[in-house]
Amino acid sequence: MNNESIIFYILSAVLLVSGVLAVTGRRILRAAVFLLFALSSIAALYFLLGFFFLAAVQIIVYIGGIVVLIIFSILLTHHIEHRLKKPSLNKMLMSALGTMVGAGACLLTIWNHPFPEASNVEPITTMDNIGTKMLGFGEGGYVLPFELISVLLLTAMIAVIVIAKRKENLPS
User: Fold this and answer.
1) Which CATH number do you get for residue 135?
2) Is residue 121 part of a domain?
């Protein structure tokens, strides 16, 4: 086993443990910090695989945007000690069922995908080619992902405002 495999397994373990702790944690600030660790390990996996643009987007948008907004809203609204309610048995069973269906769909898709061998042809990277890809909306274009990211950030900002404006005496 080479060093790259060891690093992959360590990052995968950190991702799985912090993802489970982010979802099952009852303290909201700890759950946000575990979400930060999970997203950071995903970015590290992208770097390990050589997808540097995706890793940068992961860090800038999700870690730098979403998680920081969540943590700031928790800290600024004095919800540091806020504990989430323990979910009912029905919700836990439905969540487990949904998780199994989602995992089954992912595994079925992975097993049925042909995964063609990658070509060794290096792409031509000129300023004209990069500009065309950045402004393109067809195959290989980046306009749609940037629009989706802007909608995601807007949704996160609205969620942060809702958390900040919530009354202290209302049940959560």
Assistant:
1) 1.20.120.1200
2) no
By C-alpha distance, which of 48, 83, 57 is closest to 171? 83
List, for residues 65-115, the tens digit of each pLDDT value.
Answer: 888 877 777 777 766 776 778 888 999 899 999 999 999 999 999 999 988
- Per the CB < 8 A criterion, the answer to whether 160 and 72 are in contact is yes
Q: Report how far residue 81's alpha carbon sits from residue 8's, in angstroms, rounded to the nearest whole number.
A: 34
The whole-angstrom separation of Cα 33 and Cα 40 is: 10
Which residues, including other chains, have CB under 8 Å from residue 99's CB and lie 6 or more apart?
Answer: none
Tell me the residue range of the domain where 39 lies: 3-102+126-165
Beta-carbon-side half-sphere exposure of residue 116 (alpha carbons within 13 Å): 3
